[in-house]
């Protein structure tokens, strides 16, 4: 087992910048058009130069890929499409050698229907120990022909599927993803062993998928017509006992191993419960991710996030995009305006106290791909539900060259890449001081170097015109100011020397003119003086 980088184990995660690698779409070393672990390994120097602290790898386990790896058939191996266990070991070792940590996805709410446990459950009788590992129930109505309750799948349709002997099993996601029964001691013991397997291999932590869904309300009552977050199958108090058990395992290993909850909760206060001192180290801040490009809404989300995380002594987390949502360049309006807002949002995000998550390709300014041919789209959320699906944010990232697949693979990429991305490749942006890639590199370098950035006290907000955010952070005898103009007209800001700006700005005589959809960092404590 390799040792993690020599950053203080008790603090690294509090202000870490963690880069999400969607393995299928990052880099393909095998030439089959699908990204793999050797491909990730080959790009570690790029990530080190970018300036991130850790990588979160999406699932690479053996899987039928009904949900692109989130339907796990074997939690202790690597799917051949992604490589081998030796590739995983080599990736962890090389990442540590580059000063990078590795987090892997843990998928504990459900398995694949190809998992040996579920195959045994189907072969066994109702009421058997094999079925008790999952959530099997008799149906309602004549001869049990109706589902046991009214629960709906996140991917659309009923959350139950009937098996030939007449019973039904629960699947809160795709039918190929049967939910586990976490009241079963064998399930708890199995996942404790899975955690130890990967920790022994050297990984630095886990992103826990559907961390809010592992416990269901006793009796499985109906949820009613409005099935949002406050339902009998999400955010039950019993999940916290399970997370405390995970935390005890993590704490038993050296090097500051962490758990990150993908948890949805009805309120910020409920979300904060997942990051109490004896539970997960972090929880994703979906409130911030879903906030529109509006100064008032952004400030409200920031204040609420800092207050609720701080109440339990946890750091806030900040994320703008991931593999489940449209990329924020497109969410912010697309085109030149969307890119300008995304660049400004990056500086806002990286100036806030706590930990930041970057989704692969956002450092290139990639937009959502909205015109994928239907025949190449396989996201189960789109096929079963009413949504547009998640394929468009999972298109492989472009590395070099003038035509697809832009250095991602020597073969044809598993999702087609837009020809116009030739101007967005890493090679095209490398060395261009005005590129989005250079902006991220510069921001991450300053974030490491400036004592007022990273973990620390909340921002001190300064008076600002409508549509503008201005705050100062102070630490180590220095102050850093950040201004974000989310309005429609330029503003004048009294500022110290400008350290970094997301777009062209004019600075003279201690006054900074900040155009719309632009952010800037400066040295010192100043405030907005006039519009």
Automatic annotation (TrEMBL):
GO terms for molecular function: alpha-amylase activity. GO terms for biological process: oligosaccharide catabolic process. InterPro entries: GH, GH13_cat_dom, O16G_dom_2. Keywords: Glycoprotein. The keyword Oxidoreductase does not apply. The keyword Glycoprotein applies. Pfam families: Alpha-amylase. Residues 20-394 form the Glycosyl hydrolase family 13 catalytic domain. CDD domains: AmyAc_OligoGlu_TS. Belongs to the glycosyl hydrolase 13 family. This is DUF3459 domain-containing protein. It comes from Actinomadura rayongensis.
């Amino acid at each position: 087992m390799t040792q993690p980088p020599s950053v203080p184990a008790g603090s690294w995660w509090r202000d870490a910048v963690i880069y999400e690698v969607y393995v299928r779409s990052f880099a393909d070393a095998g030439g089959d058009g699908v990204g793999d672990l050797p491909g990730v390994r080959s790009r570690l120097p790029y990530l080190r130069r970018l300036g991130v602290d850790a990588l979160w790898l999406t699932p690479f386990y053996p899987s039928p890929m009904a949900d692109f790896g989130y339907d796990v058939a074997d939690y202790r191996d690597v799917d051949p499409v992604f490589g081998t266990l030796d590739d995983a070991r080599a990736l962890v070792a090389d990442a540590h050698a580059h000063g990078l940590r590795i987090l892997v996805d843990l998928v504990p709410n459900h398995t694949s229907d190809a998992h040996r446990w579920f195959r045994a459950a189907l072969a066994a009788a109702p009421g058997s120990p094999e079925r008790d590992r999952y959530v099997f129930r008799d149906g309602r109505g004549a001869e049990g022909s109706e589902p046991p309750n009214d629960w709906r799948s996140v991917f659309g349709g009923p959350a139950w599927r009937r098996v030939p002997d007449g019973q039904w099993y629960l699947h809160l996601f795709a039918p190929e993803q049967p939910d586990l029964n976490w009241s079963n001691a064998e399930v708890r013991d199995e996942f404790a062993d899975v955690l130890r397997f990967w920790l022994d291999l050297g990984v630095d932590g886990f992103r826990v998928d559907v961390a809010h869904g592992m416990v269901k309300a006793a009796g499985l009552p109906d949820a009613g017509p409005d099935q949002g977050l406050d339902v009998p199958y999400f955010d039950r108090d019993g999940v916290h006992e399970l997370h405390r058990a995970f935390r005890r395992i993590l704490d038993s290993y050296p090097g500051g191993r962490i758990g990150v909850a993908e948890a949805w909760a009805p309120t910020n206060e409920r979300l904060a419960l997942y990051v109490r001192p004896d539970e997960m180290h972090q929880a994703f801040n979906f409130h911030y991710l879903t906030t529109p490009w509006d100064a008032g809404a952004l400030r409200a989300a920031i204040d609420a996030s800092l207050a609720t995380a701080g109440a339990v002594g946890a750091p806030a987390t900040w994320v703008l995009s991931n593999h489940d949502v449209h990329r924020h360049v497109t969410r912010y309006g697309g085109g030149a305006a969307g890119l300008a807002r995304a660049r400004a949002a990056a500086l806002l995000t990286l100036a806030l106290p706590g930990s930041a998550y970057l989704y692969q390709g956002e450092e290139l300014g990639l937009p959502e791909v909205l015109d994928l041919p239907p025949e190449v789209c396989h996201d189960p959320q789109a096929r079963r539900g009413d949504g547009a699906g998640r394929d468009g944010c999972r298109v492989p990232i472009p590395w070099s060259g003038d035509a697809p697949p832009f250095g991602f693979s020597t073969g044809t990429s598993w999702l087609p890449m837009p020809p116009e991305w030739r101007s967005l490749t890493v090679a095209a942006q490398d060395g261009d001081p005005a590129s989005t890639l250079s902006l991220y590199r510069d921001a991450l370098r300053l974030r490491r170097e400036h004592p007022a950035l990273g973990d620390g006290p909340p921002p001190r907000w300064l008076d600002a015109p409508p549509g503008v955010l201005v705050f100062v952070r102070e630490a180590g005898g220095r102050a850093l100011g950040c201004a974000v103009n989310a309005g429609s007209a330029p503003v004048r800001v009294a500022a110290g020397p400008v350290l970094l700006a997301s777009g062209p700005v004019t600075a003279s005589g201690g006054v900074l003119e900040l155009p719309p959809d632009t952010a800037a960092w400066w040295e010192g404590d100043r405030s907005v003086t006039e519009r």
